[in-house]
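Input record, target 12 of the design panel.
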């Protein structure tokens, strides 16, 4: 039985408790920096660090009146500290707190997503090795093309997800910048040392140059990366949906005991997880446009980006966290039918070996055009009349001038198409072995 999605770490990142903890840490670290500069006295810093705390209900109560979240937060914290609270937020602007905190939240969320991707890559790798040499028909335009292996299909998704991981590492690096630079970013009322000190304490880098905000191209890259990852998951889900079609049935989602597929038809086993992932990918991708539109703000700042980010920050990361979890469980428990793969390989009576014949004929000395015509003539006849392609080739006198029966048998040998599987696997997996003892996903 597959456990329900119960991970809470991602949601906690976006809860008010975590957000205000980060805000408070920024303010306290700024006070520490000002203390080192001789602006905040030792006694005041001591009291601030001892007394500073917040109450979410009180913040909400104040915000109803002042209509400003940062002011409400500072007022609440100041009520606990007392007179020394005058040193809080010294020379700072709201965005110094908001943008630095948002960067840290995105970094935290990104690191959880990296864990998710690692887990999905592990199950894809295991599945690839398990079915490394299991032949399956490859399809182009949805039509039978030439044989490949199911292991290669899984290796394709592994490699793409590996690139996604690299993209996300880069996006996290690019988003991990904070700022404490004042009203228009020129440090007029705050020493640059404060920014360096606070960012270092939070594990961020100082934004080299900012206005009142950190420029939103960084955020656009982050959300675009999430959308690419979601699209890879959709591609995987789409593949499984096609393989599960009744006429194909080469693989299908696990179906738990007691599960029902249709309210009307008791026989149904629907690819609901894959369809769910396909729909969620559309949601995650939809956040890219507003993230891109957030780049163009008025002068040194407006707040048109703020309302957008309050939605897409938690929504995109939580949705993708869920998608990666479900995709991992889907691949891990995927039901595979090698016998149906073989059945479908044989369904066209050997038509899938046409290119091999074409190349062998061309290699025998005739032109490629003539070879193509000879093979296609028999292929179309086999297709239209539902005949065995190999038998037609063996009975074609023109072809028999160039190829023996032994040559024709070699042309229909499936091992020809799998001879380089080991080579491909060595390139993808660097001669590694499957992750048999995979770490359990955190809940």
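The sequence produced for target 12 reads:
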């Amino acid at each position: 039985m597959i456990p329900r999605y119960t991970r809470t770490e991602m949601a906690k990142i976006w809860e008010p408790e975590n957000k205000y903890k980060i805000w408070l840490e920024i303010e306290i670290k700024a006070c520490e920096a000002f203390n080192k500069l001789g602006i905040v006295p030792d006694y005041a810093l001591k009291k601030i660090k001892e007394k500073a705390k917040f109450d979410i209900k009180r913040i909400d109560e104040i915000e109803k009146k002042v209509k400003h979240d940062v002011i409400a937060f500072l007022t609440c914290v100041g009520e606990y500290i007392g007179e020394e609270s005058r040193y809080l937020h010294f020379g700072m602007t709201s965005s110094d707190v908001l943008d630095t905190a948002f960067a840290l939240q995105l970094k935290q969320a990104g690191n959880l997503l990296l864990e998710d991707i690692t887990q999905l890559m592990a199950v894809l790798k295991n599945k690839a090795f398990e079915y490394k040499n299991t032949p399956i028909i490859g399809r182009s335009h949805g039509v039978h093309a030439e044989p490949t292996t199911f292991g290669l299909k899984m290796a394709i998704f592994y490699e793409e997800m590996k690139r996604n991981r690299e993209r996300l590492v880069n996006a996290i690096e690019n988003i991990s910048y904070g700022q404490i630079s004042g009203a228009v970013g020129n440090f007029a009322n705050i020493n640059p040392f404060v920014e360096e000190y606070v960012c270092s304490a939070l594990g961020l880098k100082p934004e080299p140059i900012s206005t009142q905000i950190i420029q939103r191209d960084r955020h656009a890259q982050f959300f675009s990366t999430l959308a690419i990852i979601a699209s890879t998951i959709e591609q995987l889900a789409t593949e499984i949906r096609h393989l599960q079609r009744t006429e194909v049935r080469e693989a299908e989602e696990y179906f738990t005991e007691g599960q029902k597929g249709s309210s009307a038809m008791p026989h149904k086993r629907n690819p609901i997880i894959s369809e769910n992932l396909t729909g969620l990918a559309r949601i995650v991708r939809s956040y890219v446009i507003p993230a891109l539109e957030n780049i163009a703000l008025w002068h040194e700042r407006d707040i048109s980006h703020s309302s957008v980010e309050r939605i897409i920050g938690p929504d995109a990361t939580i949705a993708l966290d869920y998608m990666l979890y479900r995709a991992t469980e889907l691949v891990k428990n995927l039901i595979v039918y090698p016998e149906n793969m073989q059945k479908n390989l044989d369904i066209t009576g050997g038509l899938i070996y046409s290119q091999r014949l074409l190349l062998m004929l061309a290699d025998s000395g005739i032109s490629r055009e003539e070879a193509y015509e000879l093979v296609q003539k028999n292929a179309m006849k086999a297709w239209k009349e539902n005949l065995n392609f190999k038998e037609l080739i063996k009975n074609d006198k023109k072809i028999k001038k160039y190829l023996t029966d032994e040559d024709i048998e070699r042309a229909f040998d499936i091992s020809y198409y799998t001879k380089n599987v080991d080579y491909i696997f060595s390139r993808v997996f660097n001669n590694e072995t499957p992750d048999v003892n995979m770490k359990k996903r955190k809940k």
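The two ends are 16 Å apart (CA to CA).
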